[in-house]
Each structure stands twice: as structure tokens, then as C-alpha cells.
Write a structure and sequence with these properties.
24% helix; alpha/beta; 14% strand; single chain
Length: 196
């Protein structure tokens, strides 16, 4: 099944992941200021979700739906979904109004504007992604592009809050045609050699 799928991944993706896909269906993007190709700019964000959103804007997708880009704590204080294998910190939100002298990147939290709620709690680490999104989106987004934020987390600048149940699509997706068009689009920007 994965052999027919298109993978768009960062250049630091593990080889065992890349090996699951056919070579012609793998597109690696430069991250973290790598410069494998002279004259080719790269853009990346502090998290995979923000990097994916930036690339969707750069590829001129008209309607972009974000899901899982919460950048906030859940109502019960968790930083990630329970199924997240690596990180799922639980914060004690009852200590919110207790000020401390030091701010820790992963241990502290504060409130920001919410997507569906007036405010939500975020962490300094999540806020770095949110800040980067809010700073970068206005310079990348065209007027004909729409970003729909489906997450019950932080508000993202220039996005529209949309509940999943309210998504309406009247167009049947022609998957084989979409696959072909996506290949064509990605091949316009792709190269198979390094700059000398």
C-alpha cells in the first residue's frame, strides 16, 4: 500500500521510513537551514505541523485544513494525545496563577487566544511554533488561499476556525488524477542531484 503513496518528508527522516516507499514517490524537503541545492531556499518551522503548513502555502494549495496543530494543552492538561509514544506531559493547570522566577521551556504554561474557546493554555515550546506561524503565514499566504483550523487549541493568525462536522465537500476526489497532479507539481520543484 505504501509503495504507491507519495511521501513528502524532511531530509532527516529515518532510512527505515523512506524504505517503505517507492523511490520515485519520495520527496525530501530541506530543513533546519541545510543547503544541499545552491539557490534553493528552504523553510521550516519549529514543529512538523508548522513546516507542513508552510509548504502547503508555498505549493499554492487553495484550501488547507490543519488538524492536530493544537499548540495548546488539552482541557485535562495533556500536551499530546494519549497515543503519542514519545511525549505526553500532563500539566497541573490549577497552578496557572502561581508565578515562578524561572520559565522552563517544557514545564511551564500560560494562556493564549483559543481557536474555539476565548483562551487556552500553551507552553513556551508550543508558543515558539505558534509565534513562528503567526509571523510567517502573512508573508506566504495569498489572498485566494484559505487555512481552516480544525483543532481545539490555539488560534492561528489568518486561519478560520472550523469544526470537522461543518466541513462540506461536494466534489468527489479523483484519487488517481490527484496522485498524478501531485507528482507533476512536486516534480516541478524536485531535483535528483546535489549542487556541486
Amino acid at each position: 500500500l505504501l509503495k504507491k503513496s507519495i511521501l513528502i518528508a524532511g531530509n532527516f527522516t529515518e532510512q527505515r521510513v523512506l524504505d517503505q516507499f517507492t523511490k520515485e514517490n519520495v520527496y525530501l524537503i530541506e530543513e533546519l537551514q541545510t543547503n544541499y541545492h545552491e539557490g534553493f531556499n528552504s523553510i521550516s518551522g519549529p514543529c512538523v505541523g508548522s513546516t507542513a503548513l508552510f509548504h502547503a502555502l508555498l505549493l499554492h494549495f487553495n484550501n488547507i485544513y490543519t488538524l492536530g496543530l493544537d499548540l495548546a494543552l488539552s482541557d485535562d492538561g495533556h500536551s499530546h494525545a494519549a497515543s503519542h509514544k514519545l511525549t505526553n506531559t500532563k500539566y497541573d493547570t490549577s497552578t496557572f496563577n502561581q508565578l515562578t522566577q524561572n520559565i522552563a521551556l517544557r514545564d511551564d504554561f500560560f494562556s493564549v487566544k483559543g481557536n474555539f474557546k476565548p483562551t487556552v493554555f500553551t507552553t513556551p515550546l508550543f508558543y515558539s511554533s505558534l509565534y513562528t506561524l503567526n509571523l510567517t503565514i502573512p508573508s506566504l499566504k495569498d489572498k485566494d488561499q484559505n487555512i481552516y483550523n480544525l483543532s481545539d487549541g490555539a488560534y492561528i493568525k489568518e486561519s478560520v476556525a472550523l469544526y470537522i462536522k461543518d466541513i462540506t465537500t461536494h466534489q468527489k476526489i479523483q484519487k488517481k488524477q490527484l496522485h498524478k497532479e501531485l507528482h507533476q507539481l512536486l516534480n516541478q520543484y524536485a531535483t535528483t542531484s546535489l549542487s556541486s
